[in-house]
Write a structure and sequence with these properties.
Blueprint: E1 2-6, E2 12-16, E3 28-29, E4 33-37, E5 44-49, E6 55-60, E7 65-70, E8 77-82, E9 88-93, E10 102-107, E11 112-113, E12 117-118, E13 125-130, E14 136-141, E15 146-151, E16 156-161, E17 167-172, E18 178-183, E19 188-193, E20 198-199, E21 203-204, E22 209-214, E23 220-225, E24 230-235, E25 240-241, E26 245-246, E27 250-257, E28 263-270, E29 279-284, E30 289-294, E31 303-306, E32 312-316, E33 320-325, E34 330-331, E35 335-336, E36 359-361, E37 369-372, E38 382-387
Parallel strand pairs: 1-4, 3-37
Antiparallel strand pairs: 1-2, 4-38, 5-6, 6-7, 8-9, 9-10, 10-11, 10-12, 13-14, 14-15, 15-16, 17-18, 18-19, 19-20, 19-21, 22-23, 23-24, 24-25, 24-26, 27-28, 28-29, 29-30, 31-32, 32-33, 33-34, 33-35, 36-37
């Protein structure tokens, strides 16, 4: 049986299962292949509420309900990332008080807060990223001028990478071989070879780089330069910066890529123009050209995130979120997020592959055997239909 999920690109993700039946002259009536309709059902966005009595807001995008997660192990939460299987959210605690030099895990199934891991003294963890295979957490420590490396099988700090300054943001290439670290103070991006944690020659970008985003194919990375009002593309193979792309809005401070890699959206924190208004810029990656959405419900934003199906980008300011439909670039109604007073970011779990499940009803030799695949599941979206395939009547 093959379970197939249609992705937004129109391609299929397939999981092959080899079935061996020790019988002679058995006629098979196999189930159709589940084709998944992508959707946002069961997608929960996590927002860090940046206060001393810190909290994380888990906001269900389907039911529009917010759950406030509080714990003594959360202090000035500034950034959130997920493991590839979406089972754990990791929180960067930026505050300099108790538990302010730590990262804290949250089990997403229950929102249970785990034991924090110390990453240094007054290091101010500002951003984090998990390796694509889920084995390692990398933490950008802004005031410590370092990157902390945590083994996720043991939840222990294994090493600290030095040789970077002003480590404000971090992103990992899709193949897991390289990390890019933004130097907020120096206007640089440091490439790190993750096989040996070696820091390479820094790449000059714009003033105050605040966010880095790789394309899904790993060929490019984009850097939001807040004080330059630009986005810099980088060719990953050569670590070469391209021509900076001017934004229509001011102070781009967050980036979010569509799953198909065609657009990267930039949240912007400062009003611009005459009369002044707020913007969300977006870069078409095939041409590195910029366009923008403005006005409406947009405000001083601190981050963007795209849903797993690629249909919606959520633009977040301190207390609410604005949905933007990717296909039409139309704004939806702003949503006030209960519990958010200083939500300076948003993170949405990564897409998940479908899970194949079937049962067989045994029949006598020579009679058709039926298989039922209706128990196949998918985390986000629904199984829309089963596309048929033929199987020989004799093995």
């Amino acid at each position: 049986m093959v379970v197939s999920r249609r992705l937004t690109s129109g391609l299929k993700f397939t999981v092959g299962i080899l079935i061996t039946i020790m019988s002679v002259a058995v006629g098979l009536s196999l189930p159709d292949v589940p084709v998944v309709r992508a959707g946002t059902s069961d997608v929960v966005a996590y927002l860090p509420n940046f206060t001393s009595a810190g909290s994380v807001i888990a906001y269900d995008l389907t039911t529009s309900t917010a759950t406030t997660i509080t714990s003594a192990n959360i202090n000035y939460p500034i950034a959130i990332t997920f493991t590839p299987n979406a089972a754990t959210a990791w929180i960067a605690n930026y505050g300099a008080t108790a538990n302010g030099t730590t990262v804290t895990p949250i089990t997403t199934a229950t929102n249970a807060v785990g034991t924090p891991i110390t990453v240094g003294t007054n290091m101010g963890p500002d951003a984090l990223a998990v390796s694509p295979n889920g084995s390692t957490l990398y933490v950008a420590d802004y005031t410590g001028n370092a990157v902390s490396v945590i083994n996720l099988s043991t939840n222990t700090l294994t090493t600290t990478i030095t040789g970077v300054t002003g480590a404000y943001n971090i992103a990992i290439s899709p193949d897991g071989t390289k990390a890019y670290v933004a130097d907020y103070s120096g206007g640089l991006v440091y490439p790190i070879t993750l096989s040996n944690n070696t820091v390479g020659t820094p790449i000059t970008v714009g003033s105050h780089p605040e966010w880095i985003q790789f394309t899904p194919d790993g060929t490019k990375a984009y850097v939001a330069n807040a004080s330059s009002n630009t986005i810099t593309p980088i060719t990953v193979a050569t670590n070469t910066a391209g021509t900076a792309i001017a934004t229509s809005g001011a102070y781009p401070d967050g980036l979010a890529m569509t799953p198909d890699g065609t657009k990267v959206f930039a949240s912007e924190n400062t009003a611009a123009g005459h009369p002044a208004k707020y913007y969300v810029d977006y870069v078409t990656t095939s041409s590195n050209t910029d366009a923008s959405i403005s006005g409406g419900s947009l405000g001083a934003a601190f981050g963007d995130a795209v849903t797993p199906d690629g249909t919606t980008v959520w633009d977040v300011n301190a207390t609410n979120m604005v949905p933007i439909t990717v296909s039409t670039l139309a704004q939806g109604t702003a949503v006030t997020v209960t519990g958010c007073s200083a939500c300076y970011g948003i993170s949405i779990p990564p897409d998940q592959a479908p899970v194949a499940s079937f049962t067989a009803t045994p029949q006598p030799t020579g009679s058709p055997t039926s298989f039922d695949a209706s128990a196949s599941t998918v985390k986000y979206g629904t199984i829309a239909n089963y596309s048929a395939f033929n199987c020989p009547s004799h093995l």
